[in-house]
Design brief:
By secondary structure, the protein is mostly helical. About 40% of the residues lie in helices and about 0% in strands. The protein has a domain of about 25 residues.
């Protein structure tokens, strides 16, 4: 390797520069377009209307996850993530998001 580089190596002077925030919105039109992402799920896909209520399915799924967290040796940080996930998709959170 050669000698020292051209940079100042952390010795460059620090100079304040004027900055500001401009709260603006861009006019845009949502339209049909290319699919840029997809998620695949395992299992048989059933066409038709759902008959299960979201709240009941949510309660059963959350309870199943809690049972697994209690039974299995799962690291604490993963347990926290699972609980945050169920908090984020819960009926109360979804109702609040739909009201906004």
């Amino acid at each position: 390797m050669g000698g020292p580089g051209h940079g100042a190596g952390g010795q460059a002077p620090i100079k304040e520069t004027p900055t500001q925030f401009q709260p603006t919105k861009t006019q845009m039109k949502l339209d049909k377009g290319d699919i840029i992402g997809a998620v695949r799920v395992w299992g048989q896909q059933i066409k038709g209307e759902t008959t299960a209520r979201f709240e009941q399915t949510y309660i059963e799924s959350r309870q199943s996850a809690e049972d697994t967290l209690t039974r299995e040796n799962i690291p604490l940080e993963y347990r926290i993530l699972v609980r945050k996930y169920f908090d984020a998709i819960g009926p109360a959170t979804m109702a609040k998001k739909n009201a906004e």
